[in-house]
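Pilot study result, target chain (1165 residues):
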Amino acid sequence: MSVSHHRRLIGLAAAAVVVVSSLSATAPSQAAGLASPGELAPTDGAEVSTHTPVLSWARVAGAATYEVLIDDNSDFSSPTSATTVNRRFTPLTALPDGPAFWKVRAKAGSQSSGWSEGSFTISQVAGPTDLSPADGTVLQQPEDPPVLSWTAVPGAQSYTVEVDRDQNFLTKKTYTTMSTSIVVPDQAHDGTYFWHVRAQLGSGIHTANSEDSSYQIGPLRQVQNAQPDEVTEPQTDVELTWDPVPGAVSYELWISSDPDFNNTSATVYKGTIFSTRYSPPTTFGNNQYYWKVRAINADNETIEWNAIETHHLFRVWDSAPELLHPADGINPPTSDDLYFQWSPVDHASYYEFQLGTDPNFSPNTYRTCKTAATTFTPAYVKNPIEACMPAQGATHYWRVRAVDDPKSPGGVFGIFSPTQRFIYETPRVQQLAPANGATVAVPTLRWAAAHNAAKYAVTVKGTGGGNMSVTTASLSWTPNLKPSFSPFTWTVQAINANGDYSPLPLTPRVFSVDGEPATTGAAPLTPLTGTEDDPATARFPNLTWEPMPDAEYYRIKIGTHNSNFWDVASKDPTILGATFNYPAATSNGEGYLAAGDYDWQVEAYNDNDELIGASPIATFAIKDLPAPTGLRIALTGTSLDADAACSLSLSDPTPAQCVDVPSTPVLDWDPVPEAGAYMVYLAEDRSLTNMVFGSASTPLSIPVTTNTRWIPTKIANPSQLPDNSAGTAYYWYVRACKTLARCGTDPVSTFNIAKHAFRKVSPKPELLSPANGASRPDDIRFEWRDYLATNTDSVYAPTGESSQQAARQYRIQVSTKSDFTSLVDDKTVDQTRYTPFDRTYPEGQLYWRVQAIDDARNGLAWSDTGSVVKSSPVVELVSPVADEQLSGNTTFRWSPTLYARNYKVELYRNNDLTFSPANRVFSVTTKQIAYAHNKPIPASATPYVWRVQRIDAKNLPGNWSQTGRFYSVGLAPNQVAPSPGTLVPGNDSFFAWEAVQGAAKYKLEYRLKSAGSASSVTTVGQSVALTRNLTDGVYTWRVTAIDAGGAGLGTSPWLEFSVDGTAPKVTTTKPAKNATKVKRTANIVITFSEPVSNVTKGTVKLYRKGSATPVKVKVTLNAAKTKATVNPTPTLKKNTKYTVKLSSSIRDRSGLNLTATSWSFTTKK
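Predicted structure:
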C-alpha cells in the first residue's frame, strides 16, 4: 500500500478527534527528565487480525499529551501524526493489510520525550463463508432463481461477487452489493456457473475471496400436451393448443407441410406468439401439416429445435353445395328467367360456377364464373362480362364448389357438387308471314318480337340457289328474291345482346314468289305503310308503297321530320344505300331505332338507272321502350319463381321501400316487349347521381344484362353490397334497351327517377364466449357463431327466406372503452375463434365486438358489444410475509407467473398501505422471481410492506400482488467498557463493544448526564479511545450499529460512567495547622475532598520534632473513605511540636494521587 494511501486512512481515522501536525514543523526539545513511553502494544512484530487495532503504552510521569505517528514505511518518510491525552489510540477507518510502523512520545508543554517505536502486521481477513447455494446445486427454472448468499463479514462496507461460466474467471461478470446476497440478473439456461465473493473493508481494503463455488441453471422445459397431434383428427377450423410452460414469456411456432421443415416455400407460419393457443388469421389449405413449438424465456433463450417433438395436423374442408336450380334433366328444358342456385356452404368466401358441354369437364369444354351469392344470373353483357351463358338447345353440365378465401394464391377449394345437366331454351321466334306454303308477289318476311331479342338472324334458302341471310334489328325483311328459285324456306332466330341465338324452328316455313304486286288504286309510289296514320313502333316499320309501272328498283330517303334535310347513306346503309326490287323496305340496321318522327320518300328507277318518279313525303314514328315494371327483390331466384318477393314502391299511394334486407338481393323485373337488353342502375340516392355500380358520368360503365334477373358476381365492383347506414337505402332502376346502342330514356341525374329502394342490413354476428362480464386470465379465447349459421336463422320477412350470406373473414376489435375509441386489438381473421397471439392485453375491463366481412371486403353489421374482465393471476409472495422479523439482508421471493418478462418489486416503510412515494424504499424491475436489494433494509420498529407486479411479454403491467409485511430488525451492540458505574480518568476514556452482524461501522455517542446534547464519533472498529480530556462528571454513552447503507441496525442503551480528573485534597485537619495546646491524648482527624484509598500508617505518619522515627499510630478510615482518624499509641509529650505527613500514594477512585502534604501542631504543657 502506498504511503499516501496510508496517510489518507490515518487522517480519516483521526480527523474527528485528533490534532494533525506536520512533521515539517520545528520539533519540540527533548526533556531530560521526561521518560519515553513504555509497554507498547501490540508488541513489536506482532500479527494482528483486525484493521482497527488499539495502540497503547504506559503513561509517563509528568506527561500532558502524547504524539503518535503511523506509517507503512519503517523510515517514517511520510507518516501521519496524532496528538492525544489518552494512553491509547484507535484508528477510525480500516488500516491496510500488511506491515505497519508506529511510534509514540510523551509531551509536556514544549518538552518531549524520546520516541518509542513498534511494528505489527495486519493479516488479510478471510473471505465470506456459508455460501449458498451449495456447491454443484442444480437450479431448476424458473422456480429456483440464482440467489447467491453468504455470512456477513464484520466491518464490511460492501461485497464484490464474481460470476463466470469459466472456472478460471477469465470472462467474469462482477456485481457489487452492500447486502449479503445477490440475485444474478442474467443467466443462460442449461449451464454451469462458478462464483466467489469478497468483502470490501475500506478504500482499497478487502478480504480474501471466499472459496469458489458452482451451481447449474437447469434447462428450459419442453412444451407438453400439444394438440392436435394425430392426422386421424382432421380439423376444418385450425386451432393449435399446448400447456403453458413455467418461465416462458413467449413461444416460437413453426408450421409447415414439409415434415423436415427444410422447404421454406412449404412453411405456412413461423413466428413468435404470446399465447398457448393459435388459430391462423388466414385459412390453411387442405393438406397435412407438421408443427412444433418451443418456449422462450425472459432472456430470449430457448431449446434447440432438434430437441422439440413434431406434431401433426390434417386440415380438411370437404363441404359441397347442393344444386337447387335448374333441376337435373333435359326435359323439359329450362327457359327464362335463367338463373342457377345452390345451397350455401359454411366457410365459403365465394363460389366457382362451372358450365360446360362435357359431363367430365375436359379442358376447354367449360367456362368458370365466380360469385359470392348462392344465386347466379347469367346473360351479363358487360360490367361485368361473364362467360357463363349456355347456348340454347344444347345439353349443358354444371357444378359448383365453394372457395375459402383469402388464402393465397387462389383460396382453398371445397368439394364440387354432383354434376347436373339441363337444356336452356327460350321460345322460338313466332313467324307471322308469309303463311306456310303461301305464294306471294312481295316476299316480306315478318315475325313477332321475341323475348330479350336485340336482333334477329333471318335465313332464306331457295330451290337450286338464291340463298340469302341477314341480321336485322327490325321485325320484317323483304329480300330481293328471284321467283325462279321458288319455293323458298326461311327461318328466324332471336339474337340477344350477348350474341346468343334462340333455337331454330323445328320445321322451316315454305313460301313461293310469283305474280305482280297488288295495287290499291292509289297513284304510283303512294306510301301505304309507315305513314302518319300508323301507330309509332319501337323498331323500324315495314315501309310499303304503291308499285310503279316500269320501275326496275326503288331507293329510300329518310330524314328527321320537318328538318328539310335527308340523311346521308352512312347513317344506315341497310336502307339509305340499298336498292329494293319490291315495293317494300325495312332497315336492317340500328340507325333509326332512336325515338322520333322521320320523313321518308321512295324513288323509282328504270333499268337504265334513270329516276322515273318520286313519292310524296310520308312520316313514320319510332317510340322509346317503356321502363320495365314489376320491379321486385328477393334473396334467391327460387323465391322469385314462387312469387315471394318484396315489390314495395316509392310511387305507391303509401310510399315504401324494402327494409331489413339481410344480404345482397336478386333484382327482378318483368320483360319489356322488344327489349334486347337492360341497364341496371343502383345508386345511393333516388336521383341516381351517386352510383354504386359504374359511374353517373360514364354511361358505358353501367351494368348491362339480357336477363330480367340480376345480382352482382365476384368480378363486379362491389361483388356484394355494403350495409346501409341509418336513414340510407339503395335505389334502383332498370332501363330497357332495343340494342346496346339504342336504350330508353337516360335516368341518371333525373329528380327522384327511382321508384324502388331497399335497405340492406346484415344480421349481427352472435358472440358465444366469453360470456358478458366473465373474468379471464391470459390467453383470452373469443368465439362467435359461424356467420352463415346466423344468416340461416335470419328470415327475411317479405319472402320467408333465410339469408344465404357467409363471411369471407371477421374483424374483431377489443377496447378498454365501450365506445371502442381506445383499441388494444383490431384483427381480421378467417375463423370463428380468436386468441391474441401477437400481443397481450392490459388488465381490467375490456370490451369486444365482431364484424363479418363479405367477399367485397365490406364490413357488415357489428355484433352487440361483449365485455370481459382480464384478470390474470397475481404474483404470489413467498417471503418475507406474515410479519416475519428478519435482518436487513433480506431476499424477497415470489412464485413465477406465466408470460412474465419482468417483475416490478416495491418496498415501503412505515407500514404504508397507500404506497406513497415519500415512503418508498425502492422500486425495481427484475427478470428473476427473487430480489436482493443492494443496500440492507434499515431496521425499524414499524413494519415494511412490499408488493410485486408482473410485467408481461409486451411490457404491460399486471395487477399487484397481495401485500407482504415484515419487520427489519438489527442487533444493538453489546457494550463492553466502561461498564456501568465505572470511574474513568478524564484523560483515559476508552469505549469498547462487541461486533454486530451486518454492521459496517458504529456511531459512539457520549454526553454529560446533566447535558442535553451528545458528542459522537464514527468508527469502523469496535472501540474508540478519545483523544480529548473529559471534564469531571457523570456521563452516559451508547453505540449504534450502522449497516453498509448508512442505516442504523440497532442502538445500545445509555450506560453511565463517571469522570474524575481532580486529585484528592485535604480539606480540614484536627488539630488544625499550627494549633497549640493540643491535648496529649487527642486523635488526629484528616478530612479529604473525596473518597480515597491507600490510607495506612505507611502513608500517614506522625513525627515528633527532632526525631526521624515516626510515632506509632493506628490509622482508620471511615466508611465513606473521606475521613481518616490517626490514634497515636503512646501519649504525646507535653509542650512538644508534632508534624503529620501524608504520602502522595494516597489516591482517589480514579487513581489520581494526593499531593504530599504535611502540617504541625503543639501539645499542652
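One observation from the pilot: The chain has four helices and 96 strands. A full batch analysis is planned for the follow-on phase.
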